[in-house]
Batch of 2 targets.
Target 1
Amino acid sequence: MKSATMTMNTPDLPPSRQEILARMIRPRSVAVIGASAQFSKVNGRPLKHLLEKGYQGKIYPINPKYQEIGGCRCYPDMASLPEAPDLTIIAVPAKDVAASLRAVGEAGGRAAVVFSSGFGEMGELGLAQEHRLRDIACEYGMVLCGPNCLGFINAYEHVYATFSQYADGPTNSGPIGFVTQSGAFGTAIAALVRDRGLGLGYFINTGNEADATFSELMGVVIEDPRVRVAAGYLEGIRDGQALIDLARRCHELGKPLVLTKVGRTVSGARAAASHTGSLAVEDALFDAVARQYGVLRARNEEQMLDMLQALSGCALPLGNGLGIVTQSGGAGVMMTDRAEEVGLAVPVLEPETSRALAETMPTFGASGNPVDITGQFVAEPALLRESVLILLRDPQVHIGIVWLQLMNAHVDMLIEIFTQIRARASKPFIVCWVAAPDGVAQRLRNEGIVMFGAGERAVEAAACLARYAAMQKGYRADAIQDEPAHRIDLPFGDGAVPTVQAVALLEKAGVPMAPVTLAATADEAVQAWRRFGCAVALKIESPDILHKTDVGGVVLNLDDEPSVRAEFLSLMERCSSSRPQARLSGVIVQPMSSGHIELVVGVKRDAVFGTMVMVGYGGILLEVLRDVSFRQAPFSEREARAMLDELRMRPVFDGVRGRPAVDMFRLSALLASLSRWAAAAEQLSELDLNPLLIGSDGPVGVDSVVILRTRS
Amino acid sequence: MKSATMTMNTPDLPPSRQEILARMIRPRSVAVIGASAQFSKVNGRPLKHLLEKGYQGKIYPINPKYQEIGGCRCYPDMASLPEAPDLTIIAVPAKDVAASLRAVGEAGGRAAVVFSSGFGEMGELGLAQEHRLRDIACEYGMVLCGPNCLGFINAYEHVYATFSQYADGPTNSGPIGFVTQSGAFGTAIAALVRDRGLGLGYFINTGNEADATFSELMGVVIEDPRVRVAAGYLEGIRDGQALIDLARRCHELGKPLVLTKVGRTVSGARAAASHTGSLAVEDALFDAVARQYGVLRARNEEQMLDMLQALSGCALPLGNGLGIVTQSGGAGVMMTDRAEEVGLAVPVLEPETSRALAETMPTFGASGNPVDITGQFVAEPALLRESVLILLRDPQVHIGIVWLQLMNAHVDMLIEIFTQIRARASKPFIVCWVAAPDGVAQRLRNEGIVMFGAGERAVEAAACLARYAAMQKGYRADAIQDEPAHRIDLPFGDGAVPTVQAVALLEKAGVPMAPVTLAATADEAVQAWRRFGCAVALKIESPDILHKTDVGGVVLNLDDEPSVRAEFLSLMERCSSSRPQARLSGVIVQPMSSGHIELVVGVKRDAVFGTMVMVGYGGILLEVLRDVSFRQAPFSEREARAMLDELRMRPVFDGVRGRPAVDMFRLSALLASLSRWAAAAEQLSELDLNPLLIGSDGPVGVDSVVILRTRS
């Protein structure tokens, strides 16, 4: 039962963690500590399923109370086992888990799944117990899944290391690997996958993740060649880089990774924090990373199922052109609406296509796209088949949807037609059959055809396929550009970098900045104004004042000597009286900049995802619209462009009301360059460019804050 | 079988259209012109269903080829009938429809449903035929439903005047009245209603609406006391006022009106225009009218079904506070996310509630909101019952959702618990049961409990109930304010009103305007500048130049005599050379206005909905964000406030970055006042106020265009 993907090490070297995990989910032997002969109980259910559902490996129940359970010899303890099992299930009270885990280690076991609850989810005390488990696992070089988890299922090899209700029903294997942080919700999703006739190859509940994490477990699942689609449910993650590595590996393998993460909103994040006991990852950052690394995010379990159905059953389209054949004009309109909303085109057909359709169509149908064939195909089945085939031949059409409803009297004929289309068409298509007769979905699935019961769902599924195909292409394009960043040392201590030096840093990082001069006296300020030869702004400079406007520390648009002189003095006066403790270094003199677009650019260090760069619409609407997008640094020009394209204010870049269009190449290059610098400058803690003005001469940074922090 | 709601007129007076329609959908007798003995054919199916499904009235098949069909005497023509039937179905080829319709009229029939296609949907020629049908109906005082329609079903009285596939299955009656412009999509929706175990009282397909329209037919359906919820599917409407009257009547009756309208997007509208052959109604206006008159808009058929299920099965909550009891923390987070997105609060519980919950809960559950009871309730059923009851008693909670999954082994117990909660709770609650065992939904429905299979759907349904309850309250509040508008005559001819007069009109309409003076000479311009005593703008004035900036016709911020004089001359010079044909009246002199918020306000006459007022965010982002909202004029201050509250830029009104908050009362009053004036000024064709600046002194209109057109 050894899998082709797994090469075990020689006996001399201890196995790698990856190897242990791979063996854990495909074990040749399973021990159950605390095994019960009562098969309905948590500690009895794994045995029941292992025995009844055809597991072929060795089963070792461990419980001093029994001689035998379900025909298997029962052992009093781990030490009595004839061999070290590949997997040990621990189903004992919380207080006994540590001892059991140690016993597994002593017996040479490498992997344990701990069902028991009563750890981190109970608060501080439980968390300390949980850390103890992690330490024991570490001590023995073991992998630990859980605690407080439902365990896992490997449906290919009939491994039921779980007490999930899902295992009570049929658990047919299929191409989907599913890993979930939630037990109850994960069980529900698994059951919904089953209800749709799709199959899970793996079902893994990670529980408290004292040791093995979501990304690690999913990482081993996707290496199984039988898994073609990865699906995950998340509540929070601690190691962002592991998730990113997982996403990259999925793209290398050409396997889509679909994730649902809850905690999108402020209220949801609050609920998540109370539920998981840990701070939820910031959703906007998670979302940005998902976009950047080609993860398909599903907003809820229903959308996840729709995506899984499409991704596991349908070929990928080579573009985003949707062709629609419909029995109802209204349904065609609705699908066209949705297509526009989710980024699919419903292209005007080539003249040749229209001509061919018109020849096929009844007079009262519509041969545009959507093609409305009305109910006439009941009398003329060829009409349906030919119109779909003609439509799919159009070069602008990359994927098709066929909409129909009811038709209880014509099921056999229709399935025959769809099978013929499937055989003859080179492009993917989806059937949308509303209020379909029973059994139709299964029969179509048997023919390799994906079916949905609602038009918008079919369109969203098609969009998911097109998006994944584009992500795959993008991944390959960017993979070449990856290069290790050279670390940049900044010659400054912790805290805010003085403005003049910060401006110099930013110029080096690739951001054109408005020039600045520090004036310690009114005379110096006047000299600086003369040198610039244009109207200037004066801004207080102090390591203790970050928000200059709050203390009246900014004066704009001065263009004569008396004003510069007077304002210098009153600025210093005002700031020293409002902030008597602040050290005032003087005043920054800066020529006034102009621009018709006001952006804001920022860098921050996130505990989960590391260096994140933000760009967004500045000015009065910044806080209101929150029209910003994020990417993990460093990133390419292509990614920077994608980031800008995500902004709602995007059309402004093309020039509105006669303003010139923005040089997108230059702006993307600026962001990419800044991202490389920010990623390499490890001391950088926070950077704010607000505003970055875009005028006819291109972008120029006006105000900046750069804060450093030496990392321990 | 005479209905209590219907009072027929005395025989002396011809019945009203309303009375004819009411009789048509509850006929005592049905004739079928073109009746066939082949019950599978379009012209045989109504007879089949009328006979088999228990219609109690008289049935008159009409076809000279038969003596008898299905045990009913068959008549050779309308003239041979023993009485004038309440309803006549016409199922003959298109070319024979006109003659049949005339025969119905001659025989004293008042209502006809025309199945036949081959009319307006075929183009110009067909449309002319369709108008002929309308004229014949009019001539005889008849009501005509169709042509090109599937007809209708009245499930209460077993009237099957249809050939829809929907009638092939069971058509149990229920509290929902459904009227659809699409036959095929409507049939699909009806089948989905059936699949959910909900019942349609009426199913009506309006077809081409040569005579009876959607609003008219729905209008008669909602008067039936057995109908409690109205559901409609729309592709376009011609008479907006009829729809508004329908919406008002629904509120008077306390019956929710749920509408799905396709053609939301540009692509969708294009597809709709090609499908219906008519210009689709502008979606933003439809949407605004729906909000204004309390229509619940469903984005697709699935959302419509969810809404129908909630509205027909659940009491209305008295507020928007959602209490969640869940078996999965993750599902709780997801529902909380969705609640925030759809406008529900997930309130922090009162201390007393938390205390009571904590006493009930197991130690590892969470007694916040969401209340996470984990799977423990399987062992302790009372835990579930009590926690829901305690939660629903919290004064901040107005509706509850209980989330659970699978539980195949505990169905009876759970249904018993929910039934107990239903009996003891005074507030509504919804069960969300994911991957529920078969038959659970039906059993809960029998107990008067609404169940969904996905958490987000349950939350959206709860939001729909809360929204409808709020709309009902709002309707009652506004109903008092309705007053007939006095017509206002404007003493100007067609075309653009000169600026000075336009400003005076707008001031009368309640809009504070920046003052203006028309200067015919440079001397007059200088005098005006002196009189204003501040910086001014000069703007060219010409009935032939609407877009002044396009011709360089605007100069801003002049504050000395030489500038005013010079710019006057160069402005006149520039405009007369760029537009030699334009009549130049001189130059408008206007003091410079300032403000920190730039709005745009407009009025237009829409062919469907009449006078529509728009307000939105002005400036550079206007075209990009399209952050505007509409209302039909006239409207109340309350409605104006709602209109402003819809804007995405809404938080700006509260004052951002230290700017003062906007006086919302004053701004709402301005909009309401303008709306009353605009509705009363029938000559008004178009009005543009751009910008309306809001500064510390309140709003002031700066540039305006007022265009009049005498209506024929």
Target 2
Amino acid sequence: MVIVMKLDATEKDIAKVEEKLAEHGFRAHLIRGVERIVIGAVGEKKREVVIDSLEMLPQVEKVVPIMSPYKLVSHTVKREKTLIDLGDGVVVGGKEIVVMAGPCAVENEENLCEVAEKVATAGAKVLRGGAFKPRTSPYSFQGLEEKGLEMMARARERTGLKIVTEIINAQDVPLVSAYADILQVGARNMQNFTLLKELGKQNRPVLLKRGLSATIEEWLMAAEYILSEGNYNVILCERGIRTFEQYTRNTLDVSAIPLVNIYSHLPVIADPSHSSGERRLVPALSRAAVAAGADGLLVEVHPYPEKALCDGPQSLTPQDFSLLMADLRKVALACGRTLTTADESAEGV
Amino acid sequence: MVIVMKLDATEKDIAKVEEKLAEHGFRAHLIRGVERIVIGAVGEKKREVVIDSLEMLPQVEKVVPIMSPYKLVSHTVKREKTLIDLGDGVVVGGKEIVVMAGPCAVENEENLCEVAEKVATAGAKVLRGGAFKPRTSPYSFQGLEEKGLEMMARARERTGLKIVTEIINAQDVPLVSAYADILQVGARNMQNFTLLKELGKQNRPVLLKRGLSATIEEWLMAAEYILSEGNYNVILCERGIRTFEQYTRNTLDVSAIPLVNIYSHLPVIADPSHSSGERRLVPALSRAAVAAGADGLLVEVHPYPEKALCDGPQSLTPQDFSLLMADLRKVALACGRTLTTADESAEGV
Amino acid sequence: MVIVMKLDATEKDIAKVEEKLAEHGFRAHLIRGVERIVIGAVGEKKREVVIDSLEMLPQVEKVVPIMSPYKLVSHTVKREKTLIDLGDGVVVGGKEIVVMAGPCAVENEENLCEVAEKVATAGAKVLRGGAFKPRTSPYSFQGLEEKGLEMMARARERTGLKIVTEIINAQDVPLVSAYADILQVGARNMQNFTLLKELGKQNRPVLLKRGLSATIEEWLMAAEYILSEGNYNVILCERGIRTFEQYTRNTLDVSAIPLVNIYSHLPVIADPSHSSGERRLVPALSRAAVAAGADGLLVEVHPYPEKALCDGPQSLTPQDFSLLMADLRKVALACGRTLTTADESAEGV
Amino acid sequence: MVIVMKLDATEKDIAKVEEKLAEHGFRAHLIRGVERIVIGAVGEKKREVVIDSLEMLPQVEKVVPIMSPYKLVSHTVKREKTLIDLGDGVVVGGKEIVVMAGPCAVENEENLCEVAEKVATAGAKVLRGGAFKPRTSPYSFQGLEEKGLEMMARARERTGLKIVTEIINAQDVPLVSAYADILQVGARNMQNFTLLKELGKQNRPVLLKRGLSATIEEWLMAAEYILSEGNYNVILCERGIRTFEQYTRNTLDVSAIPLVNIYSHLPVIADPSHSSGERRLVPALSRAAVAAGADGLLVEVHPYPEKALCDGPQSLTPQDFSLLMADLRKVALACGRTLTTADESAEGV
């Protein structure tokens, strides 16, 4: 890191900084500028502990970190892309775009199976559906809980789709991982560190949504929590950030996709439904995410959106979804990726 | 609520909306405008269920809610300000400004007691200190946990200060409430609904920090979660929101203070330390918050900020804090509030 | 519009609102809800004048506008997409993706012509280059002014490319339009209403960048300023908005592209260079914008980015640009659009 | 500045950076860290020119500026606070809080004089009122232009108040400065550099509002434009920034006040009316701004807010304003400032 001294720092002030650095095992390199002195600090120790206390020393203007704070998620630690193998040939992070589709919330088995069959036919590989729903209002529908998980499992049996579902409590890890192929951490829980640590202690893949106001660095640090406990199976999911714009619920930060691909080896997918809150935008945002390099999508599909218990306005009908998949396949191919439909897989295309 | 139809809505489209409203127990009032038809919906039912499905109907442009979504926290439900009585004459929400001060994290008993005695002398009524620390990096100091709570309790015994400390897990409610006078919910947990519900099922006062990117409405809805389970002892705490500005860690939204006072009966305090991340700003922001109508403050004070294990740069020294309290007292009096110091209380002034 | 009365509004308060509405030529429709009264206002008059004064009446809680404030730019006024014909078969808003490329600032004729020839060969149809540069610092390079315009004109002669260049002052409209095929309004001038009106009084096409913190509605209103003076030749350009994210200079709001396509008949392009500030992101963002439905792109290309007088880090080399165009062509075709290269046009493909 | 090299930078890459630095008159200091090499660059030259080109060199990760980009506005250049003397004892930046009050727009002479007399009696020293109004919609009231300036001048004659009014075009500087004591640059024009330069070439005091999405650094750089042309009479005005919060029109960034006081010698005032858009918040925000160290306030007052042609909802009545001034006086005194009312000044108190 680099320590910038104030204009009127004395030799004594500088000595104090050097002393503090030595105390933490860092070597100091002084650079006497025309107006100001800056000190380069070199060492192998963790910088987190020392930065705060350096900033408290008299005449220290600011401390500029040089290295990014994440290690295990970083591209510099592992060059090749991480592949998340869900079994039966479904792999997130490879050449194939993996589409996860289904209702926001699991409501009843009939609807769920209907939608599962339709999205499977259209080419989705994973069924999404919430059994535990974090809702802004205590008066809104909160999910079917374990009953919902059971319905998801039965839909998997019928369709062969993998399942992804949200987990909202650290103590539910055993329960949810008994059912789900991917454990989803929602935007509101991106910095629920107890939950992250618990997910790091098991091996089920985790889909980690970006927090509504999380920087990309904080998001990667949240993934670092999971990896640092031993679980390297993390899929990142860009789902829109909060901005001043009012025509959309959130603003899909499409740049986050190439940025994750530059800074990390973890796969990254996008959620065009939650990021916009509007089904009319879902096709364009889905195409954009794939074109930007996303490894997959998380799309809301509901057989009867006007009767959905939550988030109807952002759900596609199965017909819309089927058309979208055909379009996406063309974009995927144009970008050197693949996106197979059920028919094709059957035929081995 | 008001349903706005699209320009080319037909009588049939309108009939569908009326039908859907009737189904949910609402009466429809048609207004035929020059260009467009809007429908006013009147009823006593919960609107959450119906809004989403209305927006899915063909030719519905948008649905505009008329009522705010919170009920129990609302000023329209309870006109008089809620007083949170912590015992021994310490009341949050009354005429007296209640200042809560102490270190970001509890590090060792000696430092804690030193700072506790000093802030008590300067007029603080509550000791703050974190035993469970949610940190962005898994490599940062994570708190002393129960050992820290015990130290807080011993500092209370020695000084008579009440104690406020953060809780980060729903399952820790019994543990933390065995020690703390106020249970603090951090910004990152503002929408940890499991935690909120658990806190609603007991009666210990809760200090609910505003999320980094939470709107005031979402913040009040988070409080509604606690009240809806039966606990009305909630103190709101504005602690800065995330914006594009880079000279401060967060932007203290000082308008949130009068807004909470307009829309809710709950007391509201401000955290000038976390909102700025810089001790040089703490005095000005503290004065501003009191002048804007805050019922109290949450201020970081550390005896040796340059040695603090977390957030040193935003901590005041006990001497700085003492000077700040003298200034704040003048501002409080100028605004028709009081802020008594230890000496004064002893003298019964 | 809909006027929401406060809970304790009396009949007298309501009468005042009705009177005020009548005064402005609106008819009032009362809806007596369970808790509250709302009033629908119907009329053909401009609502801008009446809204503010209604909100001042006693017991009016808020006024909710029903109609969007823009008229001439709206899709409801003109259904078919506006085509901006630049001559010689270059049309913005049609099936062909129009790519505008070149240096941030015009620096010298040699570099400009070199880059112009290369981008023309790669398939660009318009040459971009700034002669008037609005810079954050008064100490930064401010542009070559008219000399720069002359160089642009000579580059046009040599390559057949159209030219787009920024205009920053209302009084420069005659000067800049004597040279440019498209007059660009930068993000900082999006609400320079004097400039917008002046541009509305002539017929040269205008490329209107979205302001750094402008909502889509404000951006469309800025376009409305130009159309309302008589010039319908407006191209909108999404160039990133300001958010809390720090890994990019701005956040490309890719949703703005389909939203403009829904709400307006004007063509919309994207600027992947300014929105990210990083050349490593330009290819992914360019593909994303085209996949989202953009009618074109504005890309920075510099023959020697490391010697550029401004914005080098976001400039592509001509070689990078050429590769990007080949990729974009595939994405365009996958989305039902075209993107011809120089060779192809020559061959009439 | 400090140049951070990429992990795999070679000696040749480093040599290139050193060469580029030498070329621009900087000396290079190498620091070989455990993982990475960083280079400190020391020199007296303007860094703006070199930063961009350094970032383009192969294997340069990033360039970290050490110095802030502003010079003349900086506290390090001029330690003592700048006083803006408006004549007749009205000085902005001294001990006295200077309140500027009046209608958003000048509408007619009668109203203007009525409000001018009332605010003067209540203690305002400057009359505000817009003759040129930048409006989001081309269909909104745009101001009375020179006729409005004349009315302002006559109100000054009658009351002795100084006048502040907005200027929106560089070519209007002679016209507006013929009437106004302070020339106001609105938020939308904060980066209208042509206007700023023109204002720098004359000596009339300038009130520079912060842009809606301007960082404090950009705001100070905008002031630098004026100072760099020779006019040091600049008053900064915090007027709220754009955030995701929807209960207020903008978010008053109260931290900007102490930050300007730390980084610059220029006086800073606050606009509680535009920042909130709601008159119910004006008293609390006014008190907060003064308590945070503002040198003055810009407050909207209209004799008949419900009839105002613009921004009625945020205007105080003269009676409200008079009460506010009494409150503010107490807060000012509590903070070691003064705020005299007309009566007091008359009596020489």
